[in-house]
Write a structure and sequence with these properties.
mainly alpha, two-stranded antiparallel sheet, 2 strands
């Protein structure tokens, strides 16, 4: 297994590292650039010339590597679920990015249609999971017990998949932020897959982590490319699928602590503005508040410093999540 993981990791890292410049040139050629909202911070208006859809590469490469591995290692239902989720949510994100790029504004998929597609895909994944004999139980960490949810498990899956994909999407707001956090998050599932002896999943996570590190070479500040919804929705969906097949639904909340906090900050902010007509945070998602000047209520940290701090927080959440997952 160790050899397979190392080969998958190095192959994905090299492939993304070598191929990304060509993808960036193509995206610039067809003018698939980031469209900056009029409500964005002034500091981020200059990012409007940066190409999006860089996530295409770190989706395709792990999918190809893991598919080839199945020819040698045999079929895996768990890997199939993970692949379908990764590719499916990536496709939804790609459609959203493509509409934004061709229209040259932020009007991609209508939010309710985007959400509907996410829910429908989660339903498909749930059906495949059930046909394969998947359990409708929720494991309670530290107790050694599992609660049978019955049909309520479907509701949990729908919330988990749509929530995770959108949460990573919210976190993808600074150079290198989402990709760096996801390296920590998927490292937990890699460790779990190795402990379970699941060579298929271990190979996939190794390839994905390698692809993300290769992508980060071009995405750290100043970013030469962004993953777009193509990448963020795929990564969030993959996190949800991983927690499903490994029965780590509760651990996912801890592993993805950064994404959870970003999402909660938006929910709290919107609720406060509507009910109290006041803001709780200077700006949301909350990671933007770190870079605002102190006069505006922020911490006046630079973008690079902010990203590194949140990377560290993500690593801490990953360790805590691993502890929860193992108990």
């Amino acid at each position: 297994m160790a050899v397979n993981c190392m080969i998958s990791f190095m192959t994905a890292l090299a492939a993304v590292w070598v191929l990304m410049p060509s993808l960036i040139r193509y995206l610039k050629k067809v003018s698939f650039n980031q469209t900056v909202s009029e409500y964005s911070l002034e500091e981020y208006k200059e990012k409007g010339k940066t190409p999006i859809m860089g996530g295409i590469l770190f989706i395709i490469v792990p999918l190809v590597i893991s598919t080839v591995s199945m020819f040698f290692l045999g079929f895996s239902r768990d890997l199939l679920i993970l692949q379908l989720t990764f590719a499916g949510y990536g496709l939804i994100g790609f459609l959203d990015d493509w509409l934004i790029a061709v229209r040259h504004n932020n009007d991609g998929l209508i939010p309710r249609r985007k959400f509907l597609l996410q829910v429908l895909l989660a339903l498909v994944i749930y059906i495949i999971y059930r046909v394969g004999g998947g359990e409708l139980t929720l494991r309670i960490p530290f107790t050694g017990k599992a609660v049978a949810l019955g049909h309520l498990y479907l509701i949990l899956i729908l919330l988990m998949f749509s929530g995770a994909s959108n949460a990573v999407n919210l976190t993808d707001g600074m150079d290198g932020l989402a990709a760096g956090c996801c390296v920590s998050s998927f490292a937990v599932f890699l460790i779990l897959a190795i402990r379970q002896g699941n060579v298929h999943l271990a190979g996939f996570y190794s390839a994905l982590i390698g692809a993300l590190i290769g992508y980060l070479h071009y995405n750290v500040h100043p970013a030469k490319v962004f993953m777009g919804d193509t990448g963020s929705l795929a990564l969030g969906g993959a996190l949800a699928a991983s927690s499903l097949i490994m029965k780590q639904e509760i651990a996912l909340i801890v592993i993805g602590g950064v994404y959870v906090l970003d999402t909660l900050s938006c929910i709290i902010q919107i609720g406060s503005v509507k009910l109290r007509h006041k803001r709780v945070f200077p700006y949301t998602p909350i990671h933007y508040s770190f870079v605002l000047s102190k006069e505006k209520g922020g911490l006046a940290l630079g973008e690079v410093q902010t990203v590194r701090i949140i990377w560290l927080a993500s690593a801490v959440f990953a360790v805590l999540g691993l502890i929860v997952a193992l108990n």
